[in-house]
Write a structure and sequence with these properties.
Structural class: mainly beta
Number of domains: 2
Strand content: 35-45%
CATH superfamily of the largest domain: Immunoglobulins
CATH architecture of the largest domain: Sandwich
Radius of gyration: 28 Å
Distance between the termini: 88 Å
Helix content: 10-25%
Number of strands: 13
Number of helices: 2
Order of helices and strands: HEEHEEEEEEEEEEE
CATH class of the largest domain: Mainly Beta
Largest sheet: 6 strands, antiparallel
CATH topology of the largest domain: Immunoglobulin-like
Length: about 150
């Protein structure tokens, strides 16, 4: 059946040989291989709200910069937040271009990044203690190490 089809395929006034038809069918099937359905993304992680405030030792808010929570057990997510002018933050987890509010349950090492400036003098500070995200709403106060009272 295929041989009969291949020996009689015509495109307008052009008649293709069985070899040409086979090559054409191979090229079409190979070009379709790149059009496979997009791999479904992994299910969203179970995250919990994490909000807080970054302060100096005397309790004054730290304005600007960024906070990064690095999971002790799960490195699949990037967990960060911008520090707002009043010192508050609200964590967002990111994975493969997707965003999820909050963070997954577990222990985290926290690094504070100062605001970027042309005359950058401060370096990131990793807090000595770890913080635990629990399966509930989490409110955390982070104190900048070495900040003057």
């Amino acid at each position: 059946m295929l041989r009969a089809f291949m020996s009689h395929v015509c495109f307008g006034a052009v008649r293709l040989s069985p070899i040409a038809v086979a090559m054409l069918l191979s090229a079409v099937s190979l070009s379709g291989a790149g059009c496979a359905a997009k791999k479904p993304s992994a299910p969203p992680p179970k995250t919990f709200p994490v909000t807080g405030k970054v302060v100096t030792k005397d309790g004054k808010p730290v304005a600007g910069g960024m906070v990064e929570f690095q999971s002790k057990t799960n490195n699949q997510l990037s967990v960060t937040s911008e520090i707002k002018p009043d010192g508050t933050f609200s964590l967002i987890s990111r994975r493969d271009g997707e965003q999820f509010p909050g963070a997954t349950e577990g222990d985290y090492q926290v690094t504070l990044f100062p605001p970027m400036s042309a005359s950058q003098t401060e370096s990131p500070k990793t807090l000595p203690e770890t913080f635990k995200v629990e399966p509930k709403e989490n409110a955390i106060t982070l104190t900048v190490p070495g900040s003057k009272p």
